[in-house]
Amino acid sequence: MLIVFNPTAGRRRAALLWRVLDVLVANGVRLDLMETIRPGHAEDLARDAAERGEKLVVAAGGDGTIAEVANGLMGSATCLGVIPLGTANVLAHELDLPFAPRAVAAALAFGRTRAIWPGIASQGESQRLFVQMLGAGFDAHIVHSMPLPLKRVLGRGAYVVQTLRQLLQYDYTPIPIRLDGQDTQAASAIVSKGRLYAGKYLLAPDAEPSRPGFSVVLFDRYGPGITLLYGAALPLHRLGRAPGVRHIRAHRVEFVGNSPVPVQTDGDKAGFTPLTIVDAPGPIQVVVG
Prior knowledge:
Layout: E1 2-5, H1 11-26, E2 32-35, H2 41-51, E3 56-61, H3 63-73, E4 79-84, H4 90-94, H5 101-110, E5 113-116, E6 119-123, E7 126-130, E8 133-136, H6 138-145, H7 148-154, H8 157-166, E9 175-179, E10 182-186, E11 188-192, E12 196-197, E13 201-202, E14 214-219, H9 224-233, E15 245-250, E16 253-255, E17 262-265, E18 268-272, E19 275-279, E20 284-287
Parallel strand pairs: 1-2, 1-3, 3-4
Antiparallel strand pairs: 5-20, 6-7, 6-19, 8-11, 8-17, 9-10, 9-16, 11-14, 12-13, 14-15, 16-19, 17-18
Helix pairs in contact: 1-5, 2-3, 6-8
């Protein structure tokens, strides 16, 4: 198997990776390890491996690295493995993947799979695949403005700090959105393939990662006060039921309008609106144990 490792995960997470690899090698598993050196490199490595006929490519990193590897594997028979080394590891929590090194190694060796159906965000000829969710508005603004050193030091706590920093600076302009041809608007939106958000917190209980379509969570209220309320509701698993939150199922999501709004996919910066979101051409198989 090929292991694609994002070295920006840091030394502590690299140590977790080596513990997984030690178990695999000790049990006779043949593997190759390749480190990414630029954005998009994981996608290229995965695509090359799929074209060579590799049966399994493992993403060792966070949700953004997983999405890049998944993008490279789309349309092939190669399975996606995961060694969760990210800050939030939302997909790993969504699929109930193991985190302990021996359990991760055992899951990869056993090879039982589950299908997920990614989404694709398009802007002109540019496309970006996401495996868990796309956010537009305030949460994407936090991702765009996040200092990398702060994230490395505080992990998920960095998002709390950055949210407090940006509460009074963000322009809470309503975003025009078209859902399966029906026009609406919201202060922020999360287009989700899965139930969870920002780790293991419940947001969209109607979502199903293996099915086409999206659970679109719309936040109608805006301003510093309601944003603090949403932040407090998240660890209580009540964000999806907070005041001013709507849930709509859709197969085609269009962020329209002339005012650019920041976008993030799977926790990584993904440009600005306008853009269109549809399902990927087909599912991908993820090793779950």
